[in-house]
Amino acid sequence: MKISFKEIEILVSQLYGFDEPKVFLEQYETDGKAVSFFLQKAYQDLFQRKVIDLGCGTGVLTFAAALLDAKFALGVDIDMSALKIALKNKDFLARLGFILQVDFLCSDVKNLYLKRRFDVCIMNPPFGIQRKGADRAFLKKAFEISDVVWCFLSQNSEPFVRKFSEENEFRVSASFKTKIQLRRKFSFHKKNIEFLPVDIYRIERK
User: Fold this and answer.
1) How far apart, in whole angstroms, are the C-alpha atoms of residue 91 and residue 97?
2) Which of 5, 29, 33, 114 is most buried when burial is the number of CB atoms within 10 A of its CB?
3) Cβ-based neighbour number of residue 177 at 10 Å
């Protein structure tokens, strides 16, 4: 079933979000517009490829890749309650006629062991705001299991991303700037809706 970027934007905006987001895991939904922008940049790497989404949460990027005709998409998250919502979202999409090649696995990325490799890793990982170095753990695992990585990271993170990639025999081949819409979830949020500037990176094995 062919589907446009705009239709994917609308669909993922209708998915169930976190019931009780955990601040220490930096759990936020990735909004439809940001997802659509991400897909338009990553499309050539995702179409008919085996894709893994690290820190998938409720499955927004996982489903977006599958809707874009990824051959298979696996979402990985440490939080079983988030994955239960992801399965609920899978049922929701199935009722709309989207039978997707998607599966989910509960695991800490640091302890993740897979028997097969993936063509592409996608992720909107913790930025390391609540747990210093959290972003490094996700990038390190992405480099272990795939040759191409597409990810959201905090604004102005490019010097770190380039250096860390080079240290692991990868290189940044493209970067883009966008904003993620954050709805008020935690007590320290001062506005009902904020827009967080972020960077998107394509990183490939040398």
Assistant:
1) 10
2) 29
3) 12
Give the predicted TM-score (pTM) of the model. Answer: 0.91
Q: Average pLDDT for residues 182-188, to the nearest whole number? A: 61
Closest to 59 in 3D by CA, of 26, 89, 24: 89
CA quadruple 11, 181, 89, 125: dihedral, nearest 10: 130
d(CA 150, CA 49): 13
Q: Please spell the DSSP secondary structure of the chain, one letter per residue.
A: ----HHHHHHHHHTS---SS--GGGT--PPPHHHHHHHHHHHHHHHTTSEEEEET-TTTHHHHHHHHTT-SEEEEEES-HHHHHHHHHHHHHHHHTT----EEEEE--GGG---SS-EEEEEE----SSSSTTHHHHHHHHHHHHEEEEEEEEETT-HHHHHHHHHHTTEEEEEEEEEEEEEE--STT--SSEEEEEEEEEEEEE-
Cα–Cα distance, 68 to 64 (Å, whole number): 6
- Residue of 53, 140, 143 whose CA lies nearest to 89: 53
Q: What is the pLDDT of residue 108?
A: 94
User: 204 pLDDT exceeds 90?
Assistant: yes
62 and 32 Cβ atoms separated by less than 8 Å: no
Report the distance separating Cα 57 and Cα 131, nearest Å: 17
- Rg (C-alpha) for the chain, rounded Å, is 16
pLDDT for 25 equals 66
User: Which residue, chain included where needed, has tokens 């998915």?
Assistant: 15
